[in-house]
Design goal:
With 330 residues, the chain is an alpha+beta fold. The chain folds into three domains: 24-61 and 71-109; 115-230, Cupredoxins -  blue copper proteins (Immunoglobulin-like); 239-328, Sandwich (Immunoglobulin-like). It has nine helices and twelve strands. It has helices at 2-14, 29-60, 72-107, 219-230, 239-250, 253-256, 290-298, 300-303, 316-328; strands at residues 115-122, 125-130, 139-142, 144-148, 153-159, 164-167, 175-177, 183-187, 193-199, 211-217, 280-281, 286-287. The strands form three sheets. It has a five-stranded mixed sheet, with no helix packed on it. A hairpin with an 8-residue loop joins β2 (125-130) and β3. α2 packs antiparallel against α3 (72-107). The longest helix has 36 residues, at 72-107. The radius of gyration is 27 Å and the shape is elongated. The termini are far apart. Bound molecules: copper (II) ion. Copper (II) ion binds next to loops.
């Protein structure tokens, strides 16, 4: 009976093998420090386990010549054994405490940041606002954080509604976003890649659909992305997309979404200025395609029940035009 459960248990363990979002695939300064700490603690625990099992086996092996009652010698041996074990326990706990203390202190050592991004978590998506001294250069995006490789990124973590938690296991430790207070997380990617992140604090119905991506790219690519993001939305050229812009501005869409360069300036939902340039929509739910836009706009409540975008009644033509317009926003 028990043996029959074994394959199932092994199968479940296999699910830990993905590298998509793994603490053990560390590519960021902070994540590497944390991974080393985890491995160190695992080794210490393994050695302790072996020692305990060793002593237990030793104690269970029957031996001849042991006296019937407790004599002075065995009592003395016992005292020494207990004292040694207690001292060893205290020492090991001490070492582990010091190791975690120095590791976590190094994570938040501050220093100068090359890029500062305000992260505003809300049910159930991530708003990323790229700060700049020059007011005209500030822009925002959603669910996709672009960073330059090898640079220090300062994230100012804020929550709009309830507590959320920012976690990109391959790059850094996790940190909560708490309404009314700001936490700071320092992030640094050592090599280019797309790192999956996920809200790590249960925040309501769609907590599981609150993913994001950190895209670490070399400086030239990052600068190109930055320059593009700072531009206003592209003017639609296709007839269908032009009609779509009209629908967007006429329906409630513009009350919740901003599209720079148009009169749409809502702030309840993600900024859509360059929405088609993002890999996914609705916080990792759907890959960005014209079909996904249509599906999402037609019925956001079936795709992501409870989310804060209502179903706006549209005709089939309006839906097609809106999707074409969304797809033109690169
Ligand atoms: Cu959450």
């Amino acid at each position: 009976m028990k043996l029959r459960c074994l394959p199932l248990a092994l199968l479940i363990m296999l699910s830990g093998c993905s590298t998509a979002q793994s603490v053990l695939h560390a590519h960021g300064e902070a994540a590497i420090a944390l991974k080393n700490l985890i491995i160190f603690i695992a080794w210490v625990a393994a050695i302790i386990w072996l020692a305990v099992v060793g002593f237990l086996t030793f104690a269970l092996v029957p031996r001849r010549n042991h006296s019937a009652g407790p004599d002075n010698r065995s009592e003395r041996t016992m005292t020494i054994a207990v004292a040694t074990a207690t001292a060893a326990t205290a020492l090991i706990i001490g070492i582990l405490t010091v190791a975690s203390f120095y590791t976590t202190r190094a994570l938040n050592s501050g220093g100068n940041a090359d890029v500062t991004v305000v992260v505003r978590a809300q049910q159930w998506w991530w708003q990323f606002i790229y700060a700049d001294h020059d007011q005209t250069q500030i822009f925002q995006t959603a669910n996709e954080l672009h960073i330059p490789v090898g640079k220090t990124i300062r994230l100012r973590l804020q929550a709009v509604d309830v507590i959320h938690s920012f976690w990109v296991p391959s790059l850094a430790g996790k940190l909560d976003l708490i309404p009314g207070r700001e936490n700071t997380l320092t992030l640094r990617a050592e090599r280019p890649g797309i790192y999956r992140g996920q809200c790590a604090e249960f925040c309501g119905l769609q907590h599981g659909h609150m993913a994001f991506a950190v895209i670490a790219e070399d400086d030239a690519d990052y600068q190109r992305w930055l320059a593009r993001q700072r531009l206003d939305a592209a003017k639609p050229t296709e007839a269908e997309a032009i009609a779509g812009q009209g629908v967007f501005l006429a329906k409630q869409c513009a009350a919740c979404h901003a599209i720079r360069g148009t009169s749409a300036s809502g702030s309840t939902g993600p900024d859509l200025t360059h929405v088609a340039g993002r890999r996914t929509i609705a916080a990792g739910l759907l890959e960005t395609t014209r079909g996904s836009f249509a599906a999402w706009i037609a019925d956001p409540q079936t795709l992501k029940p409870g989310n804060n975008m209502p179903m706006v009644p549209l005709t089939a033509d309006e839906l097609r035009q809106l999707s074409a317009y969304m797809e033109s926003l690169r």
